[in-house]
Amino acid sequence: MPAFAQKMVDLGFPGGPSARPLVTDYPGKGAMVLQRTTPPLLETPMRVFDGDVLTPNTSHYVRWHWGFPVEVDAAAFRLKVGGHVGKPLSLSLAELKKLPRFEIVAVNQCSGNSRGFFEPRVAGAQWGNGAMSNARWTGVRLRDVLKAAGVKPGAVQVRFSGLDAPAVEAAPDFAKSLAVDHALDGEVMIAWAMNGEDLPILNGFPLRLVVPGWFSTYWVKMLDSIEVLSAPDTGYWMAKAYLVPTAPGANVAPGTREFAREPINRMPPRSFVTSVADKAVVGWTPEMKVGGIAFGGDCGVQRVEVSGDGGASWRDARLGTDLGKYGFRRFDGVVPVARAGAVLMARCTNANGLAQGMVPNWNPGGYARNVVEPVRVRFS
Ligand SMILES: Nc1nc2c(c(=O)[nH]1)N[C@H]1C(S)=C(S)[C@@H](COP(=O)(O)O)O[C@H]1N2
Ligand SMILES: [Mo]
């Protein structure tokens, strides 16, 4: 087959081109929805989420801002810990792996996941809903590494950066910072494995930061530098990029450009019907199974409700195995559906009592979408 005869996937954005090629040419990856070739932006196809709640590594989405090494020499690799510490460290992978082991299941979700559905449309990667994946992360607690280096009094933040670098020197290297208390909370971790295997190079081999419950912009890949700061990070990636409205739900009236901002942080709850694709045509029965995945964001899932009539009526879904409060949770339910067609929905309420809304939030960065998403089904 000629290379241009690729399979296309329609992401279903409102008013605009939303077809993307499904590609298989990236190392360690199976079929992925191609958003950009270099640096790669690869989205997980929705049907993957109807399988195991742990997204297979071969389907885990990919996002890079700058170019990165296509190979890393694990034997020569060192993680440097410095700045406002008593004892700067330069750790080999073998040395790091001597610290107590820590594991957590957590959703890795891009701040801009689902940006293509914003109305009015906003600039940035036009992701569908597949800029998210769930994995079991294995590594060590960041706290243990910072304790070994001895955080000095007066530390306020910890800055992380990786082996990737901008193509031109004037552009800002990718670096993100967390408050020192957050960095020491015993959940933020440095992972070398996902789902029991080395990190794929595209997901940050050999090490990445995992910040459970927070958007992935903080989950720095190919992590080789940790710097304890005695003054807040004023770099581009904290002070200019990834800012959201401080208003609840990162929400301002569509089109608003002036508002109080803060760095994006905790994730809100989301859920997705995965048992049937949007715009599918299936045989009619008076009741229909509706299954999918939900996550609570910065806490667990309390409840998932499902609807077959676009949210006019709801029923509780049954929740699947709980692998930990920061991970995907499978849900399954049954809803009555009209012969004329159905609009399937799922609505997650998290353990803090926060529920997904029926009206989308909006902000000019296209961040933190978490509205209840419709799946339209026609019957043959
Ligand atoms: N070193 C490095 N880490 C990074 C980034 C990056 O550009 N460079 N992008 C961040 C963003 S915005 C996202 S969404 C996630 C994507 O993680 P993934 O590619 O493993 O899915 O990586 C984060 N960590
Ligand atoms: Mo992202």
Automatic annotation (TrEMBL):
Residues 68-237 form the Oxidoreductase molybdopterin-binding domain. GO terms for biological process: sulfur compound metabolic process. GO terms for molecular function: heme binding; molybdenum ion binding; molybdopterin cofactor binding; sulfite oxidase activity. Keywords: Metal-binding, Molybdenum, Oxidoreductase. Its cofactor is Mo-molybdopterin. Residues 262-322 form the Moybdenum cofactor oxidoreductase dimerisation domain. It comes from the Bacteria. Pfam families: Mo-co_dimer, Oxidored_molyb. PANTHER family: SULFITE OXIDASE, MITOCHONDRIAL, SULFITE REDUCTASE. This is Oxidase. It comes from Sandarakinorhabdus glacialis.
